[in-house]
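Fold this sequence, please.
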Amino acid sequence: MKHGLGKGMLALIDENTLSEIEQNQVVKIPVENIIPNRYQPRKKFNEETLKELAISIKENGIIQPVIVSNLGNGKYELIAGERRWKAAQLAGIPEIPAIIRDCSENERLEIALVENIQREDLNPIEEALAYKEILERLSITQDELAQKIGKNRSSITNTLRLLKLPEYIKEMLISGALTEGHARAILALEDIDKMIAFADYIIQNNLSVREAENEVKKFLEKEKYVSRETSEKKEDFILKNTEDELIRTFGTKVEIKGNRKRGRIEIHYFSDEDFARLLEIFRKLM
């Protein structure tokens, strides 16, 4: 269970503890006069469960009223209860019971986010987008958001990182083909092409999150080794080229011992004349 929602905000959306006065203020509003909350983080609703709810509403009516704010001109915006509103439309119910509450823009945004996150049915990408929107619109920190929704800041940070994934993998998260744990393992790869290839590999091999993490770890260790080996070969190539250039310059055997950071250069001579010739070259270079 998720905790941490402030009492003031909870009072705005807790439909199970409506006051007696509010119970008497329930009004019937035509479903066509209600628009969804513009800050609703949930972008997709399960069609099957909506149909089941529609059947229940048709048989038993709507037990809990939705909560709306008055936009004027007979129009209302949902604060809480979008599933019931959608199901009522499916059931062909012309009016639904509602309670009208006055809320600011920021309150509507915060309520939409908190109500849905508290219910734990957002997919990881919807949750990440919801965090991003409330952080930007309310100009609050991740720590402040963590306090509002009762989560660790690190959890929010990790969820926001999912937005760095390529769209192909985001769709896998939305559809449920991959879990958030899989996605976090994939993020360690950084390269988009590698991420996509590994996401396909996870699905094809039905890897658990732990197995995916181990595979990524092995891949990165191998890549690090190959990178180091490539770097060493590149340095050897550079040193060999430099050595050849010095041989051409001095016309004698030259050896470079060490690497580009530290070492020594040995220039060989094989006679008095050779030594004198090298000294003359050094004088000209100086």
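The chain has two domains: 7-164, 234-285. Residues 1-18 have pLDDT under 50 and may be disordered.
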